[in-house]
Write a structure and sequence with these properties.
Blueprint (H helix, E strand, L loop, with lengths): L2 E5 L3 H13 L3 E5 L2 H10 L4 E5 L7 H9 L6 E5 L4 H10 L3 E4 L4 H16 L8 E3 L2 E4 L4 E4 L9 H11 L5 E3 H8 L8 H15 L9 E4 L3 E4 L2
Parallel strand pairs: 1-2, 1-3, 3-4, 4-5
Antiparallel strand pairs: 6-7, 7-8, 9-11, 10-11
GO molecular function: cis-regulatory region sequence-specific DNA binding; identical protein binding; phosphorelay response regulator activity
Main location: cytoplasm
InterPro entries: CheY-like_superfamily, OmpR/PhoB-type_DNA-bd, Sig_transdc_resp-reg_C-effctor, Sig_transdc_resp-reg_receiver, WalR-like, WH-like_DNA-bd_sf
Length: 226
């Protein structure tokens, strides 16, 4: 059973999500503060986190960074902050998706299903690939530096990287990446791609400012150059 940690300081939202998620056979933990969320995640590691940004003690972006220090669990952000800078900050910190309040429960459930489908998607056998000083094994979901150190990627980072690496040398359009990784309703969210490619370059490219392997084709899409 998938365990979901819901973090929100509004009791009515916690109650509504707990009822709706349990009715759909999810195992649910709840927390009303950032500190409680980090403690709950450490005590009972979730399979997915639904996180409000506006918490009373710790900003939600800091909670994301705290979680990303030790886990790649998917994080879906909830927030009444409509500004794009808040979305960018959450995605850049390591969130996998973003839902703006007020939201419909069915919309959130669809996002949760999409994330869990990506987690369960099988990988075809492919040879190990090179990016800078890293070896990427998509079958094992592993990235190793040449010194043997493992590089951790979040599920969404893996999905974006895999789409590019499975088509070496070929242009993958923005529309195709957004549809395949996030779904057809995300085809205008090009800021998602900018954030995730920037994250991948920081982790994998020798010089993220001058990438040699994860290439942007302005206005068109992205390309993995072997």
């Amino acid at each position: 059973m998938t365990r979901i940690l819901v973090v929100d300081d509004e009791p009515q939202i916690l109650r509504a999500l707990r009822i709706n998620l349990r009715a759909r056979r999810y195992d649910v933990d709840v927390a009303g503060t950032g500190a409680a969320a980090l403690k709950a995640a450490a005590s009972h590691p979730p399979d997915l986190v639904v996180l409000d940004l506006g918490l009373p003690d710790i900003d939600g972006v800091e909670v994301i960074r705290g979680l990303r220090g030790w886990t790649t669990v998917p994080i879906i952000v909830l927030s009444g902050r409509a500004g794009s800078e808040d979305k960018v900050a959450a995605l850049d910190a390591g969130a996998d998706d973003y839902v703006t309040k007020p939201f419909g429960v069915e919309e959130l459930l669809a996002r949760i299903r999409a994330v869990t489908r990506r987690l369960g998607a099988p990988s075809e056998s492919v040879p190990a690939l090179r990016i800078g000083q890293h070896t990427v094994d998509l079958a094992d979901h592993s990235v190793l530096r040449d010194d043997g150190t493992e590089v951790k990627l979040t599920p969404i980072q893996w999905s974006v990287l895999e789409k590019l690496l499975r088509h070496p040398g070929k242009l993958v359009s923005q529309r195709q990446l957004l549809q395949d990784v996030w779904g057809p309703e995300y085809q205008n969210e090009t800021n998602y791609l900018r954030q995730y490619l920037a994250q991948l370059r920081r982790k994998l490219e020798d010089d993220p400012a001058r990438p040699r392997h994860l290439i942007t084709e302005p206005g068109m899409g992205y390309r993995y150059r072997p």
